[in-house]
Known about the structure:
The complex is a heterodimer. By secondary structure, chain A is of the alpha/beta class. Chain A has one domain: Thiamin diphosphate (ThDP)-binding fold, Pyr/PP domains (Rossmann fold, 3-Layer(aba) Sandwich). Chain A contains 15 helices and 8 strands. Chain A has a 6-stranded parallel β-sheet with strand order 2-1-3-4-8-7, sandwiched between helices. A two-stranded antiparallel sheet of chain A has the order 5-6. Chain B is of the alpha/beta class. Chain B has 2 domains: 184 residues, Rossmann fold (3-Layer(aba) Sandwich), CATH 3.40.50.970; 125 residues, 3-Layer(aba) Sandwich (Rossmann fold), CATH 3.40.50. In chain B, 37% of the residues lie in helices and 21% in strands. In chain B, strands 3-2-4-5-7-6-12 form a 7-stranded mixed β-sheet, with helices on both faces. Chain B has a 5-stranded mixed β-sheet with strand order 9-11-10-13-14, with helices on both faces. A two-stranded antiparallel ribbon of chain B has the order 1-8. In chain B, helix 2 links the parallel strand 2 and strand 3. Chain B is globular, with a radius of gyration of 20 Å. The mean pLDDT of chain B is 97. The structure holds thiamine diphosphate (TPP) and magnesium ion (MG). Thiamine diphosphate (TPP) sits at the interface of chains A and B.
Amino acid sequence: MEREQVHKMLRDMLRARAFEERAAEEYSKGSFAGFLHLYPGEEAVAVGVIHATEPADYIVTTYREHVHALVRGTPSKAIMAELFGRRDGICKGMGGSMHLFDAERRFMGGYAIVGETYPIAIGVGYAILLRNLPEAVICFFGDGAVNQGTFHESLNMAALWRLPVLFVCENNHYQIGTEIHRHSAQTDVYKRASAYNIPSEKINGMDVLSVYSTTERLLKQIRNGGGPYLLELETYRFRGHSMADPGTYRPSVEVHSFTSQDPISIAAHELESSYPTAEEIAKVGPDCITQLTEQAQQTGHLLEQDLELIKKDIENEIDAAVDFAMNSPEPTMDECWLCFQNNQRAETLL
Amino acid sequence: MHEEILYWQALNRALDIAMAKDSSVFILGEDVGLFGGTYRVTEGLYSKYGEARVRDTPISENSFTGLGVGAAMIGMRPVVEIMTVNFALLALDAIINMAAKIPFMSGGQYAMPLVIRMPGGVAKQLAAQHSQRLEHTMMNVPGLRIAVPSTPQDAFWQFSQAIESDDPIILLEHELLYFTKGVLDSSIEALPMHKAQVRRKGKHLTIISYSKHALVSLQAAEQLAQQGIDTEVIDLRSLSPIDWETCIESIQRTHRLIVVEEDCKFAGAGAEIVSELTERCFFELDEAPIRVAGMNIPTPFNAKLEAASIPQVEDIVAAAQGFRLPS
Ligand SMILES: Cc1ncc(C[n+]2csc(CCOP(=O)(O)OP(=O)(O)O)c2C)c(N)n1
Ligand SMILES: [Mg+2]
């Protein structure tokens, strides 16, 4: 893979991690309330998949979606301001953390009712079909979401009408506190697709490079009329389900086995030969610290500085996003009504 | 016995007692078992009664609620916990088409000893999909009984009664009430499940409310008292059936009515309450009844707008001040 692409993805993973950790900090400070579902640990999924999309593709996702929007190109300040519920948020402070929408980037929304992404995605897919365009829809969902009826209903229709949808399962093994073996009789999510004659596969979702190349291949196929596909990505969330959940129901051995596969350190590893990484990267995932310390000793100075520059850059970006959010005004009730009645303005109702 | 207890603990106690007493009682829902319940209502019961009677479910609301219906038909007493009312929208087929209809359609052959518990209401910045109040939806369904406890005592009584009842009962719990404290007195006899309760006696006007807003109304009544306005507050405790007699008796004394609800005003519970009471005591009312209700808008995420979209103490006080009271 091109060094440039790897470099960009590593950068986005670092941005994602920094954004989420900062959001957690602001939440703990009381800058905003509500449900906050964070993404650390799962970065390789959103980054790998979304880097493989074209601007003309559509994305439908869940309530754990800040990173998806960020990687898609929504400015970090517009996302942060939305988390703060401010006027300059991407949804003007009306949607919040779980409901990011960015029409300009074909980011079709974050949905907080589990199982809603499928019908929206096949609807968008159906429109693409009717318009006969070389576009695809990416439909994200969790492992817990496959037991909602809409999964089965939507997969059937997608297959029946050969809709251009890539179903992407972010399998982090948990439905809040319920581990996958306790919520699903079939724990290989990808196998379920075969009931609807939809081709599918499962790959390591901690490895951004294979996520990227697989998605790129699948999207090409889908845009060329290949019909729907289900891609299962095995991953793990390092934090609890949301800020309200410490995640203490998970055995520490399990948590450890995944943090040692930190997708960020895996991607950093790829850059090693030409781009020997430093302690800076090691800090990102607890278990890659020792792994990378040795390599850091053989590090070329220039490259280490490069990485530091990236991290500094990201830090500045996130600081600026928080500043922007904090200084953005609260929306007014009039603006609230305007959002609500936006579509009625041209119509005579009474 | 007389003790201070949290709302969730009262529900937990009721369920524990019912499960110990009757092996046909079981509970199922998302994260009710190992995790101990989203709002802790099932805490400790998984280890006590085992996973078959405290069942963690997949995210399949319509089907696990339907499972409750099927089990109830042959004599079990299932308690279905739907994590929040917002997800009950996915189970409306089981609730409305099945639970509410089967006893009737079968010509009375089947009972439906089913309890469906669900937290709802506007909490803190949970945004539009997670802040709904669906009492109007349930109220409009003949065959469902709806209890809306506002205190730990009522939560304990009404949940216990619901489990013992042979009708399908919806227990609407408010998300902001779980960690409120109150007295649980097991020595006093429980009120009937659907009986309203006068929480505060007053002579100038009657406020009728339910669930969390019954408590908000009480706060408003205290403020009004300082201004010399003596307010009666009725906590309905139930939205189907409604204890009209208690309401009418109050209006006959105060001649003024405010109905307070957190739900959207349009076609909400308040609309039903005001129209029934207007029909039944038109000539007792000195002034037009007032509804203080939520705005007809999805709940905004922004905290200030969220608060502005539902009745606050000041809104109730202002409404009461609008009455022309006899001096
Ligand atoms: C219909 C519905 N039921 C329940 C919930 C509560 N809930 C929110 S997220 C979640 C778990 C979802 O797990 P999964 O699909 O694996 O996604 P993850 O959060 O792990 O990314 C549950 C039960 C909900 N939002 N919607
Ligand atoms: Mg999951």
